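Today's session is about reading a structure prediction critically. Students often jump straight to the picture, but the first step is always the sequence itself: look for stretches that repeat, for charged clusters, for runs of hydrophobic residues. Only then move on to the predicted structure, which in these notes is written as discrete structure tokens rather than atom positions. Here is the chain we will use throughout the hour.
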Amino acid sequence: MVLHTNPRKAEKHTMNIAILIDAENVLPSHADLIFAHAEELGNVVCKEIYGAASALTTWVAPVLKYAIHANLTIKAAKGKNSSDISLVIGAMDLLVAGGIDCVIIASSDSDFSSLSVRLRNAGIEVIGMGTEKA
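Below is the predicted structure for this chain, in token form.
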């Protein structure tokens, strides 16, 4: 897992952090790294994970350990990215609600670049975590 951040340096424990995890593109073995980094940056106030039942099943232990809110997505057809869309809707809900200074998107899927730009344009720090392929 590789950590990708934008150039701004976050001050420790001054930000409200939201963690959004794409369970279909991140292994549960990376949960400790994701949460350790987030806790170094600030107060984790939102923890969400998105995925189909098969992906969420592998995440049971980290979901319980970190009290992550699981968002089950139903794939109506093979190959659809309903989990990605649910994650984007969740991020936009956070933007509208306010109170979040930083969003960590944990996914090895590069489809979230437009979301990152939108959040940054709204003044929210965005940190992407994923494998180098993303």
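Discussion point for the tutorial: The beta strands are 2-5, 15-22, 42-51, 69-72, 102-106, 125-130.
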